[in-house]
Amino acid sequence: MPAVQPDLDALARAIKQWGAELGFADVRIADADLAHAEEGLLAWLAEGRHGEMDYMASHGLKRARPAELVPGTVRVISARMDYLPSATPADWRGREAARLADPDAAVVSLYARGRDYHKVLRARLQQLAARIEAAAGPFGYRVFTDSAPVMELPLAEQAGLGWRGKHTLLLNREAGSMFFLGEILVDLPLPVDAPASAHCGQCRACIDVCPTQAILGPGRLDARRCISYLTIELKGSIPLELRPLIGNRVYGCDDCQTACPWNKYARRAVVPDFDERNELGSAGMVALFGWTGDEFERRLEGSPIRRIGHERWLRNLAVGLGNAAGKKRGDANIVAALRARAGHPSALVREHVEWALALHGADAGS
Prior knowledge:
By secondary structure, the protein is an alpha+beta fold. It has a domain at 205-260 and 276-359. Helices cover 39% and strands 11% of the residues. The protein is built from 17 helices and ten strands. The protein has helices at 8-21, 35-46, 55-58, 66-69, 92-100, 117-136, 152-159, 205-209, 227-233, 243-246, 255-258, 285-289, 293-299, 309-323, 325-328, 332-340, 347-359; strands spanning 26-31, 75-82, 107-108, 141-144, 163-164, 170-171, 179-186, 215-217, 220-221, 249-251. The strands form four sheets. The chain has a four-stranded antiparallel sheet with strand order 1-2-7-4, with helices on both faces. Helix 1 runs antiparallel to helix 6 (117-136) and helix 14 (309-323) packs parallel to helix 17 (347-359). The longest helix has 20 residues, at 117-136. The radius of gyration is 22 Å and the shape is elongated.
């Protein structure tokens, strides 16, 4: 803590103003005590619903104890940043639904069409911390953006940024859920904000729309069935029974968010970083499937997609191309694209290509 205590009330007000100047839609402050979240975390992990995300379990209850992660932590500055690309049309939810129905379209989650949010938020949170230090003197802190064992959703809820929806994502009455979260753990005893109340009511839109029924009930998610997990976190083969349910979603899934009535208030990003790149909002699967490894690395430099690697990218696209057989079985362009990858060095890619070709009534031959 600083040797001379600053006016903490004034500092808290200033932090929120500085956050707005840095592009954050809202900044709030929470107490660091998450004891109430520990039981639910342990139960979720014990049921194995985190799948292969071993990092969710490796730190145990430290995830719910910020002061153990960063000694001295007494408050958490929680911030949100809207991410809908600035050119997103007013009827964006209808547009996304139309792409899901198009067997040629490669559907990439909206959050991943621009720059990697980890880098964007982390840099701006560091700038915010620097402003605090300039005003209050040296203090203990650490910045996080979905990058360490921090339960950022319960912290954001506790800070008043929104409430946990039935899909487990954070919802805000003025902005829906299309935003990123980031935190600064600090040793300053700043005044805290009041939590927000929940406003989902009897709505089940997110539960009912989930293609794989990964949302088991209000606030209960089985990540192992979630399409975002299957296309991003899962390193190996996608379970056969789930492949048809993925459709043409090749990186992530927005269904539970596009179905949510609160997202009629979703806001466009105020920073250019999240504007669409590589035409990822309109790209076709055959074109993306044709990218070489070098092209994948070059085109997706600075993108969150790059972290899954070219192999899993091809795996996901092969599933999408296979599912296109529901409307375009035996399509010459799709079959040719799949056959071009039938001899891929990766057994993972070959397996999914073979599966896709079988759906089209074709084999790996020319």
